[in-house]
Amino acid sequence: MQSPADRQDRHEYPAHWEADVVLRDGGTARIRPITVDDADRLVSFYEQVSDESKYYRFFAPYPRLSAKDVHRFTHHDFVDRVGLAATIGGEFIATVRYDRIGTDGMPASVPADEAEVAFLVQDAHQGRGVASALLEHVAAVARERGIRRFAAEVLPANTKMIKVFTDAGYTQKRSFEDGVVRLEFDLEPTDRSVAVQRAREQRAEARSVRRLLAPGSVAVVGVGRTPGGVGRGVLGNIREAGYRGRLHAVNSAFTEDLTEVDGVPAHRSVRDIDGPVDLAVVAVPAEHVPAVVAECGEHGVQGLVVLSAGYAESGPEGRERQRALVRQARAYGMRIIGPNAFGIINTAPGVRLNASLAPEMPRPGRIGLFAQSGAIGIALLSRLHRRGGGVTGVTGVSTFVSSGNRADVSGNDVLQYWYDDPETDVALMYLETIGNPRKFNRLARRTAAAKPLLVVQGAGSAPQGHAVRATRLPHETVSALLRQAGVIRVDTITELVDAGLLLARQPLPAGPRVAILGNSESLGLLTYDRCLAEGLRPSPPLDLTTGATAEDFHRALSRALADDTCDAVVVTAIPAIGEGSPGDAELAEALRSAASGVSGKPVLVVHVELGGLAEALSAAASTAPQAAAQAPGAAGTAPQAAPQAGAANAAPRPARAPGIPDGTGPVHPAQRPPAAVPDAPGAPREDGTRLIPAYPAAERAVRALAEAVKYGQWRREATDPGKVPEYEDIDEKGAAELIGVLLERGQGLTLGEAETCELLGKYGIPVRRALPAPTPDAAAEAARALGYPVALKATAPHLRHRADLGGVRLDLANEEQLRRSYAELTELFGKPDELRPVVQGMAPRGVDTVVRAVIDPAAGAVLSFGIAGAPSQLLGDMAHRLVPVTDRDATSLVRSVRTAPLLFGWRGSTPADTPALERLLLRVSRLVDDHPEVVAVTLEPVVVAQRGVSVLGATVRLAPPPARDDLGPRTMPAY
């Protein structure tokens, strides 16, 4: 008789357990199941483990594995015995194994739900978080196989392994017997285990990006032997930016006697470089990239910026080439920005890296930029770099990443880095696609609670180079979900820059109340109208008249800022004298000094494009007496860090994208970026300066302010996000058992009426019975069973929920009315088998609404609400929230639709019972959150009466749950 270890595998190889992970130090590893083909790898791995680690694993000296050991550790059935390995370069660096056991501690099979687990990590890789990552993955595997609890025996001296278990956040029990620590812990995720997992994810992914953005040494591979070309250009950009680390030029075509290129050490291969290389910038043709990646991996390079094109953007062959590139780089533990990337920039004084195609280094500052598109990246850099109407001082760039095809490093990774980056105060992102909206929303919500996050999102299809999950949600719905996560969602690059500069320079407004003052009545009224259009609450404009002096502006602004009924001030100004007049500098100084007295209210300037006011506002640091007192080398004050446009020693301007002004000629007001004036030292910002943004058009200033107001409101509400309430009458276990029985019928199914009512009933969601009425007699019998008055409805697809077509008869008080209505319906619309009529008890009159929940493959579970009929169907007036929904979410969801006044006594009607509606929304949210098998729920109509709600129609669709979800272990996008 064969032992369990000798039986053939009971399951096919579980390929979905394979995953790439980012480790604690920012490197990567691959986790996969161990198979019978891994015998040699296992023996080699074990030989490299220290005797001490072997002792901790086996509780005795164990110098080598026997043939029986190797067989046991490589033969698994992937159910009761599972082994996983973490690999780099195809070789094992760590292993984990579980064996299912019974209550007696002996090997067992299903339905036993406990397993013993043991780890072994190569000494050279201990401390990198490998065991923690393996624990997350083996726990997910165990839960998938019906195991609910792990047990581990550890020697007391093995403190590192004990810490791995205790820090994981699971509910656990510890005991000590016979000199061994026994740990038992449940595998059900807890709030603490999820928090630990996500904190580890953030640290690891942030470090992986930091290794790319702050390398100690850089090699540019593909540097031409003669001037010109991408590689030679990037090498020059890095050198001219003043990169602080070691720089190398690499080209296999260099002659053996060539030692330098433009003063940079030259090498024929990365392997020839003496010393470590942290980052390689690859600028060779796509067909030569694999050889370069192999050289880099063998030399221990930590990351790649691949500028080379010819990948997924070029078609199917390029897509396969891109997949191979990612697989090859990850095999060596390297991360990739690109391919087809524009490059990266880090302006930090200790780094000064410009590994991009931008020929000029942006000014150092506090804004982080991410762009998937190189052209948009050029546009953002050029607008933020232009001194005459752009950013000075603290509102320069901290870091810039243009990801190209985004095959590996994505916006999510950069968000993880920016979250706790002390050099970045505001994050601006241009996203053509969102590869993982569920994770992006989670990260965005956390980031936005700490610093503003502004996004322009493309509305079209995904570019060729981007591998994204398909979403069934409309673009507008995804945008709405982003806003709920605290993202400041804007439509254009101009709006992105306008709002970003305001948020980088000024405090958040405490509310929507706006004071307007200036020397132009017309411009003030225009600003007033735009405030109303944006939902702000402006006070009547204060007209200082065209004869106003700088002192008049100073006094008016000081009074407005001191007024408790004002949350923000917009100053409108037309220059009294021509371009370059001293009056502009004087006015800029008057505004700056007035604003310096109040730190909690934002100030914006709207100016007419006639004179030098914008330039004076930007240059106020040099004209203001206080500026001279700044410490030498302060951000934005060093002349060499921000050369004047047109100066003899200035670097070339960034390349200009089509339709983007280069700043050398006249700029239309709608295109010119805002200018700024620094505040006095000692203002609220840590760097001691505050800038007043100036806008060439009222609508741009007011739009930016409106976004700041909404974001400020979100920040205040985010401090108390609400809670997911518990309901004692919810039968979660009973619902799970029912779902399991129903799913045994097939892979996916829409439930019948009785099953739908039963499942919803377990979550306290009653559905009014509707009895089939295939004949007039059946209708009369159904009415007698339900009790009069009743409703008669046609449920055929073309008539369902279409009361406007006459397919519904209400308030039928007796059998005579019922039979007459039945005859009318069949005469109008056809035979009963075509109409599918039903009889339903009458619900109290109220407002008809619709509630839906869907599991989107990209965004996750989404709860939607709207007023039934034309508002939701014709106008798309639906509001959305991510599941799980809190009580605050439910309250705001009901009030978010434009037709919400219908629920609150519109035009003298009786207000509906919105608290009951909110409770219904929370119960639906709980249902889909507790049971991922519930992939779609529709309740329509839901009648919200003066008291209570009535669900008159419901459909539920079930499907097997996905193998992994956002609560699963950390993984990188699959390739």
Q: What can you tell me about this protein's structure?
A:
- This protein is of the alpha/beta class.
- It has 28 helices and 40 strands.
- The strands form six sheets. An eight-stranded mixed sheet has the order 1-2-3-4-5-6-8-7, sandwiched between helices. Strands 11-12-10-9-13-14-15 form a seven-stranded mixed sheet, sandwiched between helices.
- A hairpin with a 6-residue loop joins β16 (343-346) and β17.
- The two termini are 42 Å apart.
**What is the rounded Rg?**
33 Å
- Spatial sequence of strands, sheet with the most strands: 1-2-3-4-5-6-8-7
Q: Which regions have little confidence, pLDDT < 50, spanning 5+ residues?
A: 1-9, 387-394, 578-582, 620-689
What structural category characterises the helix and strand content?
alpha/beta
Average predicted local confidence, pLDDT = 84
Number of helices: 28
Q: Residue share in helices?
A: 25-40%
Question: Per DSSP, what share of the residues sits in E-state strands of 2 or more residues?
Answer: 15-25%
Characteristics:
975 residues, alpha/beta, eight-stranded mixed beta sheet
Give a topology summary:
Elements: E1 19-22, E2 28-33, H1 39-47, H2 51-58, H3 67-74, E3 81-88, E4 91-101, E5 114-121, H4 130-144, E6 149-154, H5 159-166, E7 172-177, E8 180-186, H6 191-213, E9 217-221, H7 230-240, E10 246-250, E11 260-261, E12 264-267, E13 279-282, H8 289-299, E14 303-306, H9 316-331, E15 335-337, E16 343-346, E17 353-356, E18 364-371, H10 374-385, E19 397-402, H11 411-419, E20 426-431, H12 437-448, E21 453-457, H13 475-484, E22 488-490, H14 493-505, E23 513-518, H15 521-533, E24 537-538, E25 542-543, H16 550-562, E26 568-573, H17 582-595, E27 603-607, H18 613-618, H19 620-623, E28 675-678, E29 691-695, H20 698-718, H21 732-743, E30 749-750, H22 753-761, E31 770-772, H23 776-786, E32 790-794, E33 808-812, H24 815-829, H25 832-835, E34 837-841, E35 846-856, E36 860-867, H26 870-873, E37 878-882, H27 887-896, H28 914-930, E38 934-945, E39 949-951, E40 954-958
Parallel strand pairs: 5-6, 9-10, 9-13, 10-12, 13-14, 14-15, 18-19, 18-20, 20-21, 21-22, 23-24, 23-25, 23-26, 26-27, 27-29
Antiparallel strand pairs: 1-2, 2-3, 3-4, 4-5, 6-8, 7-8, 11-12, 16-17, 16-19, 28-29, 30-40, 31-34, 32-33, 32-34, 35-36, 35-38, 36-37, 38-39, 38-40
